[in-house]
Specification:
α1 crosses α4 (about 80-105), α3 (about 70-80) packs across α4 (about 80-105) and α4 runs parallel beside α7. The protein has 2 domains: about 1-80, Homeodomain-like (Arc Repressor Mutant, subunit A, Orthogonal Bundle); about 80-230, Tetracycline Repressor, domain 2 (Orthogonal Bundle), CATH 1.10.357. Helices cover about 80% and strands about 0% of the residues. The chain has helices at about 1-55, 60-70, 70-80, 80-105, 120-135, 135-145, 155-180, 190-210, 215-225. The chain contains 9 helices and no strands. The model is unreliable at about 20-35 (pLDDT under 50). The relative contact order is 0.08. It is mainly α.
Length: about 230
């Protein structure tokens, strides 16, 4: 009986030690992963500020590391290269922007009521653009600069998919409108590109005035729908 008791006691201590080791390992691992996540996020935020202010070509790797308080090997460990870092900055932020656009580019037909039909859909989409641009100014300034990069540049190769995704999302909304309003048939691509160009111009104008309210949204939609007669 004494031997059995000792065996049980040994098993208890072995089990306790294993549990303790697992607990310690998990605690250390979680802290390590948390630190890695913080470092990576810090690099991304610092890089976004620099790319927005100076453009991709205007930022040196040494500036990126200094701003983030890291070494070059650390940057290369997380992102592989300057282009890899730029790609990650764009992917994470364009994905957020395009989700916002997709959620807002929804047309619910109500042709009997002017203000509840096309106008309402465009106001909702314009409001989403303005809100995102003002809440994420550094990134949105970067997107506007990216629109006009040479086709042969590394930047264009990184961002063109995200831009075309956005055009397709908005083009689909205009296709839905065309199903109800026959005069819009075949114009979805032109309208999508025109809408994005016009709203970016408007955003640039109101940034300087630091104005963002429902009146600005309504003014933009009225201008887009009626042109020079607005």
């Amino acid at each position: 009986m004494q031997v059995i008791g000792e065996i049980r006691l040994c098993r208890f201590f072995v089990s306790y030690e294993n549990s303790l080791l697992i607990f310690i390992y998990r605690s250390v691992y979680n802290e390590f992963m948390s630190d890695k996540s913080d470092v990576k996020q810090n690099i991304l935020e610092s890089a976004l500020a620099l790319f927005s202010a100076k453009g991709y070509e205007g930022v040196a790797v040494s500036e990126l590391t200094t701003a983030a308080g890291i070494t070059k090997p650390t940057l290369y460990y997380y992102f592989g290269s300057k282009e890899g870092l730029f790609d990650t900055v764009c992917r994470e932020n364009y994905s957020r922007l395009n989700r916002v656009i997709a959620d807002s580019a929804v047309y619910k037909a109500n042709p009997e009521n002017y203000h509840e039909d096309i106008s309402k859909a465009l106001r909702s989409l314009a409001h989403a653009y303005f809100s995102f641009a003002f809440e994420n100014e550094a990134f949105y300034r970067l997107t506007m600069a990216n629109l006009y990069m040479p086709c042969s540049s590394a930047v264009f190769e990184v961002v063109r998919k995200y831009h075309f995704d956005q055009y397709e999302i908005i083009g689909k909304m205009f296709q839905d409108m065309a199903n109800v309003h026959g005069n819009l048939i075949g114009k979805d691509k032109r309208l999508a590109w025109s809408f994005i160009g016009a709203i970016n111009a408007f955003i640039g104008l109101v940034w300087g005035e630091e104005i963002h309210n429902e009146n600005v949204v309504n003014e933009f939609v009225h201008q887009f729908m009626h042109g020079i007669y607005a």
